[in-house]
Amino acid sequence: MRLFYLIKKEFIEIFRQKELLPLIFIAPIIQIIMLGYVVKTDIKNIPVEIINLTSNKIAARIINRINSTPLFRVKAISDQNKDTVELLKRGQVKAVIIFKDPPRQNPLNYPEIQISLDGIDSNTSLIAAGYFNGIIKKFLLDNLKKAGMHQPAMSKTLIRFNPTLESINYMGPGIVALLLTIISLFFTSISIVREKEQQTMDTLLISRLTPIEIYLGKAIPTSIIGLINMSLGIAAVMIWFRVPVRGNLLYLLLASIIFLSALLAYALLISVITSTQQQALFFAWFTMLTFMLLSGLFTPIENIPPGLRILADINPIRYLIKIIREIFLKGNGIEYFYKELLYLLAIASVTVTVSVINFKRLISK
Amino acid sequence: MIETKNLSKSFKDIKAVRDVSFRIPTNSITTIAGADGSGKSTIFKMLMGLIKKDAGSIYLKNEDIGSDFNQITRLTGYMPERFSLYPDLRVEENLNFYADIHQVPRSRREKLKQRLLETTGMIQFKNRRARALSGGMKQKLALSSILLSAPELVLLDEPTTGVDPLSRIEFSNIIKDLKQEGKTIFISTPYLDEAENSDHIIFLKEGKIIKKGPMKTIRKQFPARIFSVLPRGNIYEIMDQMHRHPDLKNSIYIRGKFIKYIQVSSKNHLDLLPAISVKEESPKLEDIFLYYERQSTINPEGLHASTD
Question: What number is the average pLDDT over the span B240-264?
Fold first, then answer.
């Protein structure tokens, strides 16, 4: 019952901060929509310049195809030779495609094509090269078809779970996990430190509340807010971005609750080692950033060097993101991600124990 | 009611409390007075178990509590130095929350809450958020909160610091009423005029007790005479000159437009002070404190702290 009063007090305090309410409930939706667009890895409209030094008809047809695809945005087509390095140096285009007369020994009369890419943004350059090769390949296959010939060998690729390879389907659920992390981690660590700052922690400590009750009294309200936020985030990615949810969301709720107990134990640790809200914010930010970078959201876990992999292994977000993608895209049940749930449980058990011991130590200085 | 023996606490190299022993008798007002940083708040926190003591013992009703502070916290209402309630909660919500976490039965609470709100003049502000209260009102709210659990022992750590003079008088009256109700009050203050109504006094300096005892005894046994001198000339220039004099440097201090002279030995040095008028006064608590404070500087080991 004492715990109930503490939770009630927390909610009153949160809802009394009128300036904070839009930040809690509206900002995350805006954030998820914005992030949804920003973190898309699908690259379109790559700016290119075409230098056509031939009157070859095939070259003209290929240029037409480049012009009509949304993958490239042709900024200029010229028939004069130019310094390609200088063009890339100016930075207005990411690629320069040069068409030259066909070599003499080319019986099919195909033009010589050269593509120069700006390698600073290696990802975009590689994707641009891939797109361009795809266009050429498609052009050749169409020509073969017209001539009544077939491709000598063919492989058929079937892409499951995300057949359109939309990056939002992959990133969206991950961002939802991120949202739950940000709100819960920041809110809990700050709210405990605020009690220290305004000396109300002493009031709580000399009351009949136990340290566990104080921790739960802080963690439960922020968890509820975090879960509401996550639900809003899920609704946003489902409705706005049409990301499919193929699995059972109750599994996600279960995973999120276990995840939150681990994450909030980290928040408690932050509140133990800091004494002002400013410090807590800084620590929470640093923790969140580390967790985010080692979560597999932006880069595959396999790419993380072995030394840092240990940090990734104790990172609860990593497991939640894995579970959330399994549920959203693969529609998997618990039998497919029980290992991740067990990892989360193990992390939660250790972090909660360490945090509560430290919290008790703090209050008996 | 409560007693400490050789209580000590250090924070790294700083000895905050040194061998402090005192007794707070039941149904009395005991004041601990000392400058800022003299260790008052540390003593309060040690009594409540909020800070772990390095050495010494705490006795409650003649029993050593060891490290079990539950008995003390159950019997005690503790008001920390700074306002320690929730600024975003309304006055009544703060009172209810405090009562809830101390498990005060609702049947008992409502009547008491009403009475406390009336006594402290807070009734018309009960729906106001705590952050919108004045300094004095905040302290009254904090006091009302701790009184809701009907504690036998009331610990008030500098309750009137930063409070306006009118609220300080009101506070003083509330404390007297609490004693009338049979409560034991232990209060700390840097304002010695507030301690005049106490039954017992403890003077603290740099974590050490320099004098303690019943107020009457302390006054009765005060060994010096106090003179109030209206100086002829600039008071600061005179003080500057007199501070160079070995017989005067530890015996004079400024109080308003007067120089106060504490005559410690049988020899009177008043003739050294250029004066328009000189008047002997009965010693105030402030004079008594200053006397012992100076004596502790001159002869740190020579003081006999207790008059018990």
Answer: 83
